[in-house]
Amino acid sequence: MRNAFFQTLTQIAGQDDRVMFLTGDLGFKLFDEFATRYPDRFLNMGVSEANMVSVAAGLALSGKRPFTYSIAPFSTMRCLEQIRNDLCGMNAPVVVVGTGGGYAYGVNGSTHHGIDDIAAMRAVPGMTVVCPCDPRETAQATRALIDLGAPAYLRLGRAGEAMLPGTEKAFSLGDPTVLRQGDFVALLASGQIAEEALHAAELLARRGVSPAVLSVHTVKPLGSLVEHVRRRAFDVLFVVEEHGPCGGLSEAIAAKLAALSSHPRVIPITAPDRLVHDVGTQAFLRRAAGLDAQSIARVVLNTMEDQP
Amino acid sequence: MTEFERIAKRVRKQILIMSSTAKAPHVASALSCVEILVALYFKVANVWPERPDAPERDRILLSKGHGCTALYACLAERGFFPVSRLAAYANDGSSMGLHPVRGALPGVEASTGSLGHGLGLGIGMAVAARMDRTGARVFTVLSDGECNEGSVWEAALWAPAHNLDNLVAVIDFNKLQATGRSTELTCLSPLPAKWEAFGWDVSEIDGHDLRAVTEALESPPDRKPRAVIAHTVKGKGVSFMEDETEWHYSPPSPNELERALAELEEVP
User: Which of A62, A248, B240, B262 has its Cα between 20 and 30 A from that of A302?
Assistant: First the structure.
């Protein structure tokens, strides 16, 4: 996803000379092509995330379209108030990019895990929050956020994510991408955990449950999601996110649906509300959090057994 | 008294009237940066009230947003909007709050209030001006208490490494922050040496001497950003407010306002 992001950014920069890239001293070798082609539009801000965001705001208020880049917790929470006041407070069109959403930086430990970044970004008034599920959606989202012209958070995974079926279709902010058609049950995933949700759906299909799988790339605003799930008349929505239980997609969806006179059940499948002490690969930490395909499928089956 | 000094006196009066009428705090913080803002708006900076959004304008950022009555009064005196509009200060539904908001008034370049934002914003604007060759300079006014914020020093580290010679940071060094002496709460002194060590072209001046302020702001630095350490007195111009912590918070009562305005009149 990082490669897709950098390739797309470099392409856009060739067509739009407002585009700039600011890094908090991360992205070694990844940003080389951008920096070589557009040296005056590449700023290495050093390990100073707060200053990076304020500088990006100053650039944006002067007509530029900057992207700021660091690992998810650093690019969001370290400089949260700068994002709130300098970006959203002045509607400065800056895209904050957080790489390593979820447990992508697994063995680096919890300082590097993005399991509360979405909550932090959703809480900021006026922020758009986008979590693409694969490299193709990353490229589409990057382009869409330039066109948005308002502050936004783009949450990436890391490297090696698979291309998921369904993302080749047209992309529009706020319209979830259907990765798999299904009936009665839907798995709504934000970000690259959609791949596990798809695998879970395949496991479930062998057990007689055929869930739809959606990539809810736009976590804020939810856009057409509620309309979509109502139209399809799902009985149960399983919301799968590589993020803690507070403030992410599950709560966003539940809050929207709860206001309706009738609505499907919403079952969150999230990481625990805990900063982990034991490190491990992303696959290990997903298993430990119950976010691997088998665990997701188990939750679905158990729930469906109890479902009237 | 020069025309320049008469403007500074009018700005001080407006600050006192606004604070007293609205019963709003920060009167002393505003009084300490009057000459800095008057020098910028009336002598140094290229700004045009009839074209507040001109791309080539110099940017003036009041990073110490709590001193905004000084900013509002300067903008009004300079013709960005009628002086009569100052009466709306801190009223219900007014665009003029206790901290300035970009877009709410012509001439306000940044929403500030939380400290430690203006220098980074200024860097962004200065970089953009250099890229676009607009010739615009950026002046950002900080308080000494604001220099407690880590983000100020993040910005201070970066700007000299990029030779941002169109950026000026003015530190309104009035030696008092909200609840105590700024030179005692943290190890702020020696302040000029700190900025110099960070790579800035430093000048140290009497921040109430309009000529000294103007010279320090006008003379172009040599491939470096400039830091102007302006020694000031919090509450300057009103004897009973000068260097007194209380006036960070207390608005002048009608009686105190009368005394303060009378004092300003006595100055030859």
Answer: A248
